[in-house]
Amino acid sequence: MTTRWILALPGALIASVLTMATMPLWMPQGGAQIDHIVMPVVLFPLIWVVFFMYCCMEENLPRGSLVMIGTIAFQSFLIVTAF
Amino acid sequence: MIAMSQSRTKRLTAIHGWSGTVLGILLYVVIVTGAIVVFDNEIRDWSQGSAQVENGLSGKVDRIVRNAARGIDPKFYEEVFVRPHVEGQMRVSFQSHQTNPDTGGLDDYVILLTLDKETGEEVSRKEGFSGEVFGADRGAALSRFLVDLHVQLYLPEPWGLYMTGILGLLMMAASVTGFLMHKHLFRDAFLPARPGERLVTARDRHILAASWSLPFAIILAFTGAFFSFALSLAVPVLAMVAFGGDQQALVETVLGVPDELDLTRTSLASLDYIIADATSRVGGAPTLLQIDHYGSASAMVTSFHSPAPSDLTRQTLLFDGVTREYLGVKPTIGLAPSVGSSLVSLMGPLHFGNFAGLLSKTVWLALGLAMAYVTATGMLLWTKRREEERLWQNFNRALTITIWGLPIAVLGSAYGFFFFLPAGDTVFWTPVAFAIATIVCIWVGFGKKDPTERYIRWLGYMSVLLPLFRHIVGGLSWSEALIQGQMAVLTIDILLVIGGLVLLRPLRHAAPLIRRRHLEPAE
Fold it and tell me: CA–CA distance from A40 to each of B53, B229, B252 (Å)?
């Protein structure tokens, strides 16, 4: 139970902030050249809900932990290589 | 209806309850103040008791702005805003981006002039960073305080924004889990509560109100979290990743600042011509005029207009500031239309409910109050099921104090505002009056066995007497308000009296929430 709450609260928040941060690296810029900056800001609450609900609903907790840790690690890697 | 295993349903029920209860009291404060500040402009008009702010720019704007600009250092020509003010006046602000020594961050240094619309004579002048200039408006202190309470719980930046952002996310969690665990959403939306004063009756009422306000709750939680996190969290994070930490570069990219500016001194095109052109294109006068790089070869004029009757978002037109040529509709952000700009422009109308005038605002107020009811009854149901435990008994008392104490404290802040409006510092005393009323409510709440009835009486008397108090300390009378077309004064006064009289009825006729202490478990 503790693992699930750690994943759903700090885990989902960290994963959603990192996802928002990496979106400019792969998202199309659009006609006005701003979508890659604006869309992550707009979508941030929805991204958090997706991670949060996934952590709450996943029946297989080890798999859920793996997905969240993998997501956080991959996004962190993308940010580090972007600098 | 979504089929789920028993363990998932149990987990969702726990998340739904805990997400509403943890920080639920603060969520209630944000929701109630949010419902109130839907009528922010009307509260400002009512409280400052002066003539109504005009709807659009008219008259000899060009001559007055040019005359005013002659007395201003050109370094403040970076951005010039022209907006209507009370009858016979207009406001012109000259601004430049400067580093604020108090915060260390980039801020707008503003010279705000209030001018006579006919003669151009200076009525008043304020100068300083934007927070000092616009925050020191004595007449708007009440509405500004209520907005601050809603936006950041009156906490310092950025912590208040983080807090309300987290509350928005929690509200989304409670709404989404409520939707998923709701087995008969559409049926329940039309089912009346079972009779009696049992726990199950209270739960039926909670579900009924929740079913109707669920889509609205998701929209408000989403847009609220967006507004809280956009500047406080997203901009610094994205600037770090995409712009090497340069927030100004990010803002300029998003807002669409031209790459090269020609600051050669050039005469500005006629603002009167641009206003007339914009008015004929949109069908209404601009509510705001923005002039970027006033008096230079790169000058641009943007006119902002209220939304058209069939439109959700406000209309913004762009003109060349030298040739007065119409350049097209300006997106909310960026220099060209984009998906991101369209989505951002929808956030405001969806959150503030201001897209169809008083009608949409009234709907937003009603749904906001329904959400406050859902939050309060949800927390009461949660504590009722755990009433044997001392912790939850105390939480229940804190809940009662908040549910009734918050509207009392809001009215207390209005009394404080009106008391000091004639000759005092309303910016200081409005929050102080709120704090004093809060302390009194907490004192009474923890001192007496059940303070509910006393709170209701206070709320009733304070509501009924506020219009009279406002008038005694020098506010507009109803006849003056009628003559000046200040309908907000009459409407809010009448609503306060009616609301107060409803609360002062004998309690046997009062709302079920008041009688919640008689609830008996039915399951």
Answer: 37, 11, 17
Q: Cα separation of B351 and A33, whole Å? A: 26
User: pLDDT tens digits, residue range B416-462?
Assistant: 999 999 888 899 999 999 999 999 999 999 876 789 999 999 999 99
CA distance B204 to chain A (A): 26
Structural contact between residues A23 and A46, judged by C-beta atoms closer than 8 angstroms: no
Report percent pLDDT > 90 for chain B.
47
Cα angle for residues A45, A49, A51 (degrees, 5° grid): 120
C-alpha B480/C-alpha B470 separation (Å) is 14
The burial class, CB within 10 Å (0-12 / 13-18 / 19+), for B48 is buried
CA distance B238 to chain A (A): 5
Residue ranges of E strands in B31-134: 79-84, 89-99, 106-116, 122-129
Regarding an ipTM greater than 0.95, the answer is no
- What residue of A is the nearest CA neighbor of B339? A35
Determine whether the interchain pair B241/A21 forms a contact, defined as Cβ–Cβ distance below 8 Å. Answer: yes
Label each residue of B238-295 as H, E or C: HHHHHCCCCHHHHHHHHHCCCCCCCCCECCCCCHHHHHHHHHHHHCCCCCEEEEECCC
Residues of A in contact with B337 (CB under 8 A): 31-32
Instruction: State which residue of chain B sits closest to A75, comparing Cα positions.
Output: B241
Question: Rounded CA gap, B385 and B383, in Å?
Answer: 5
Q: Which residues, 6+ apart, have CB-to-CB distance to B219 below 8 Å?
A: B350, B351
Distance separating the N- and C-terminal Cα atoms of chain B? 24
> Which residues in chain B are closer than 8 Å to A52, comparing Cβ atoms?
169, 173
Q: Which of B80, B98, B79 is nearest to B90 (CA)?
A: B80
Are B334 and A79 inside 8 Å of each other by CB? no
pLDDT mean across residues, chain B:
86
At position B473, the amino acid (one-letter code) is V
Give A65-72 contacts, CB < 8 A, sequence gap 24+.
A65/A3, A65/A7, A68/A7, A68/A11, A68/A12, A68/A15, A71/A15, A71/A18, A71/A19, A72/A11, A72/A14, A72/A15, A72/A18
Query: pLDDT tens digits, residue range B307-352?
Result: 877 777 788 999 999 999 999 988 888 888 899 999 999 999 999 9
Task: State how far residue A11 is from chain B, nearest Cα, in angstroms.
Answer: 14
Q: Does the distance separating the beta carbons of B235 and A45 come in below 8 Å? A: no
In angstroms, the separation between the Cα of residue A27 and the nearest Cα of chain B is 12
| H or E segment and range at residue B208 | helix B199-229
Nearest partner of A83 among B244, B192, B314, judged by Cα? B244
B241/A52 CB distance under 8 A? no
Three-state SS for B322-380 is: CCCCEEEECCCCCCCCCHHHHHHHHHHHHHHCCCCHHHHHHHHHHHHHHHHHHHHHHHH
